[in-house]
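[Automated response] Your request has been received and processed.

Submitted sequence:
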Amino acid sequence: MSHDLGTPVPTSHRADSSTRRSRKAPKKKRRKGRIVLLTLLVLFLALGGTGYWLYNDLNGNIDGVDLDKAIGTDRPEKLPTSGQNILVLGSDSRAGANGSLGTGKVAGARSDTAMVLHIPEGRSRATAVSIPRDTLVTRPACTKADGGSVAAARRVMFNSVYSLAGPACVVKTVEAMSGVRMDHFVEIDFAGFKGLVDAIGGVTVTVDKPIHDKSSGLDLTAGTHKLDGTQSLAFVRTRHGVGDGSDLGRIGLQQQFMIALLSEIKQQDLLGSPTKTYKIADSLTASLTTDDGLASLTKLATFGRSMRGVDPSTMETIMLPVAYDKVDPNRVVAAQPQADTLWKAIRGDREIPESAKKSPAQGG
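Generated structure:
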């Protein structure tokens, strides 16, 4: 994780600027995926694993989804050596508390972040595979939360699955494209992210160049800043004020923020402050949705204790290898054979070959 996370992606020399922005792919230093939500997951499990008894009354905050009922039996087999696999989603609903967080004027809810967190047997390390939201995928037939149905479809944008059919369908789509059975899923929305930062008293970041982004509302001079929850949300969402202005341009900022957030948490004696611990738990549980297997603080605590051997600083975070779509250059598709090799390694709980981490979509 010792990377220069503040370096912007170089601007392409292609003539078509709109295509150029959409066809950007992260450089090697940025091919790490979106891991802000992973940070929140690790933090919450750590808190749950040590002090859940302090705030057991917050159980009712957590929404649970019965994946087996929602998905059915058409799922990959759970292999005895496949470790644990968790789908982590970050939702950007514009409704409720999120409506005032500068998240834009898009209606409805979408999954802004999606990653598969793989924890091998022994649980001493972890790998997070980020799935670009503009990836074209085959969506399987799904049952929506209201009981309605969604027909299978080819070549749909990955992040459209959530808004159309909900998180269970995202789980089913990821399982179909990877052949990896998801043991759990965790979803956190923007309001929870903001509340977390405010609960710990802010996060300190340093930027080499000014960032001015009217879309996210972020306005920072070069130098060191202590960001509150609203500013932190803008920081991890900004893209127009950094690099080439592409969606992938913000990956470096998200990595930088994750490290700063972990450093802030490490410096604080959260367990020595029950009041602060409660505030953090309250802000997270109010914006947390999981599968039924994790839908209580007791269950989260049990799972958290089993993950104590995982060091967040050693987590390997990569992006699903993608290539530019031949029909629509503004979209990407899973690159082969890299993607199949990656998913096969995860299914077998084996080390991912370096060749499976290389994306043909290199940008310009």
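Summary generated for your ticket: The chain is about 30% helix and 20% strand. The first helix runs from residue 17 to 22.
If you did not submit this request, please reply to this message.
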